[in-house]
Each structure stands twice: as C-alpha cells, then as structure tokens.
Amino acid sequence: MSDSFQPVVTSQTHKVDVAGYPVELPLVAIRPDLAISLMMVIDLGVRFGAHCGEKLKEKLAPLQPDIVVGAATLGIPVAIEVTRALGLDRYVILQKSPKVHLGDALEQKITSITSKGEQRLLLDDRAVPLLKGRRVVVVDDVVASGSSLKGSVDLVRKAGGEVVGIGVILTEARDWLETLGADAGLVKGLAHIPQFSNENRRWAARPETML
C-alpha cells in the first residue's frame, strides 16, 4: 500500500457467496487505481463464523490435522471456529506485535496488502512443543498477496510442524499463487474475490484467469 495514499471506503460493494452464505463487502480503494473487497470477519456475526468453520472443516478434516494455527488478528476467529468444528481443543495463534508473555519467540517477517510497511509474525517458543512433529493446518480469513500465509507456514516449519493444509475463507486475485509457490496447492478456500480497477470513476473487477 502506498505511504502517501490513505485508504478510502467507496460507495460500491461486492457480493460474494461464501459456501452458501451470501455477504456484501464494501470496496476499499487502497491506491488510486486499485480497490479490494474488505471482509472484516469479526463484524459478520457468530453465525457466519460458525458457518465458515464448519465448511472449512469439511475441506480440512480429510487431512487429519492434529492442531490449527492462525495469525492475529483476523485469523483468530477463523482458527477458533475451525478448531471447534474439527473437534480439537488446542490451537496456536501467531502474534504480530511483541507481548509480555512472548519470551524467545520464533520470528518471520511479512508484508500485507492492507497494512503499511513490513510486519513480523511471532511464535511463542512455549508453543513449539504443540507443533513439533504434528500435522498442522494453517488458517486465515483472506489470502491476497500470500505473504502472511507464507510467513505462517514458514514459522510452523521452523517449529518442526508438518503443514498438511491451508484453509482460508476467501482467495483474492492471483498474486498469492506466486508467493506461496508449491504450497499454493495446499490452499482450500470457500470463495474467490477479484481486485478492482478504476474505470471512468467506477470500480470494475480486474480480469483474471479463473482458479
């Protein structure tokens, strides 16, 4: 995201069917020539979260995961609902800012399409035993650039976990395919959204090859 351009919520929205649950997302201009559909999963209610957890469970359960990993902040409710739906108890949250309880945390640098500058993902070293030698699914709300998910996957592997799947509510455009590389094949999503170009003062979906 440009350092000089401030994101603007536009008057347009984009409708998407999330595995049978329709939602209408506001378009937010993050550059003069680029807008995205903004999904704030924490604002869409308990039923939506439970629905997504159940639908992602259907895709991830055949992978026989032992534990779920999600990144703060919007990945937290996804991790909780997927863990609940899978009938598991423990999950691991990767933090994006230092916390008092984080000692010698494992660290991975990331970037995000919706955040300025470089960020860090931090894994509490006391959570490493929960991941080492375990079958792990990494979950998040949206994959766009793919940097956050790649950082999450890399951290799990640093901790000795085996990443057997990646679950997201939405895949956005196609940049994430290149970022994730071979790991893109692990991604299981519930719906896909495009990005939008400014055409004659209206935002129109950018053409892309279907996934």
UniProtKB/TrEMBL annotation:
Keywords: Glycosyltransferase, Transferase. GO terms for molecular function: glycosyltransferase activity. InterPro entries: PRTase-like, PRTase_dom. The keyword Transferase applies. Residues 57-178 form the Phosphoribosyltransferase domain. It comes from the Bacteria. PANTHER family: PHOSPHORIBOSYLTRANSFERASE, PHOSPHORIBOSYLTRANSFERASE-RELATED. This is Adenine phosphoribosyltransferase. It comes from Martelella mediterranea.
